[in-house]
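User: Fold this; tokens only.

Assistant: Input:
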Amino acid sequence: MFAVRRTAPLGRPVRLSLVAGSAVLGSLLTACSGAAASDSAKDGDPAPRKARISVNLSGDRAVPGKPVKVTLDSGKLTAVTVSADGGAALTGRISADGRTWTSERPAAPGTTYGIEARTAQGGSAKAGFTTTAAQKVNKLTLAPGKDTTVGIAQPLSIVFDNPVKDRAAVEKALKVSTSNNTEGSWGWLQDYSGKDRVDWRPKEYWKSGTKVTLDADLNGVDSGPSGGWFVRDYRTTFTIGAAQVVKVDLDRHRLALQRDGRTVLDVPMSAGTPGGEKASWRGTAVLMSKEGTINMRSETVGLGDAYDKMVDYSMRLTWSGMYAHAAPWNASYFGVANRSSGCVGMSDANAGALYGQVRAGDPFEITGADAKGTVAEGNGYGAWNVSWADWQAKSAL
């Protein structure tokens, strides 16, 4: 904390000096005359009343993560500015009685802040402090990408580099806004990679054309023991594209693409061989990415040396390796039986037609008995396989 004291006699220009403790708000010089405001007392006008402020953070090793609080011992504050060296200024509010100002966000690690306060009596003073640097920093990966257009089932998904123990503090800093007030909720889960993750999904599929913005105001938030501090903010925006749903019927061996409720593609396919690990997943799997021609090797998904192929029109549905793709080697089973190693295979022409029309975020709704289970929340984007009530319960708030 700092204080300002008068070091010159009345009638001479006032020099302000800072001392530890609190800050005294002295009078300002009048710009037109250059005379000290205290000179006006000679003409019968009262001199501006001195006041003291205190700041809850001080020195060069202040603890980050707390809001900045400026308190006035008497009178009223009219304005307080808190600038940050190399970062965004802190905004805040003056209390109803005018005695205190509190920042809306916490002080960030490794930052030098300057404070200037003004009072209704015409005084002003400056103070400052520096927070200690973060010993450990937490970072994150955001999906979908900035300024992208995605399908109606795409969640906002955040994967953290380090564990998040204080989930409530982190979730409070995540603000989702939409162009049509879409109802949704955050839900915490474990990503397929084993890392902590939080997704925001709507109660129902997005409406086509919705614009979505995420403001992750995380700078200065502590993720908890072994997690570290966040030292920056994040922001992403995206738009919801056409209302498309891919229907995969494992029992009928058919795949249909529906747009706005109308079927625009209906083709035969062959999915995973039932009765073991080669079976496909059921439930809603969200198209994660269109990967084109890729090398698929069975050992990467725990199936030994069953295959090693270059595969065209690859569309990833889960982290565990389930795709929709072209599989011309399986042509005799299209529309007849499920005989793949877990993926949804089609002819080159049909896979190409589907690939050209779908986008990341489109839901693949997979039904039928020939499945090994339901897509889990963290295995890609499986949040749609959880009831709305159960999903809301996964929020930390």
